[in-house]
Amino acid sequence: MGLFSRTPSVQFSVANMNCGHCEAKITERVQSMPGVSRVKADSSSKKLEIWYADAAPTAAQVNEALADTDYRVQDC
């Protein structure tokens, strides 16, 4: 069992995430959020998974981190 399999995570959907560039930009912004330990953005499923140390980030907090981009998350 790996480290991330024991770390809690939360998923969001990102409707306009379409390519690897989108994934990289979203990952960079979300990874910089306090308490986030890992991020996986997947443009094929349009899902964003965030592993966290303490409290789960909310959609509003993630959208704040993405404020100067064209991306917005929604609860799955």
Automatic annotation (TrEMBL):
<dbReference type="InterPro" id="IPR036163">
    <property type="entry name" value="HMA_dom_sf"/>
</dbReference>
<keyword id="KW-0479">Metal-binding</keyword>
<dbReference type="GO" id="GO:0046872">
    <property type="term" value="F:metal ion binding"/>
</dbReference>
<feature type="domain" description="HMA">
    <location>
        <begin position="8"/>
        <end position="74"/>
    </location>
</feature>
<dbReference type="Pfam" id="PF00403">
    <property type="entry name" value="HMA"/>
</dbReference>
<protein>
    <submittedName>
        <fullName>Copper chaperone</fullName>
    </submittedName>
</protein>
<dbReference type="InterPro" id="IPR017969">
    <property type="entry name" value="Heavy-metal-associated_CS"/>
</dbReference>
<dbReference type="InterPro" id="IPR006121">
    <property type="entry name" value="HMA_dom"/>
</dbReference>
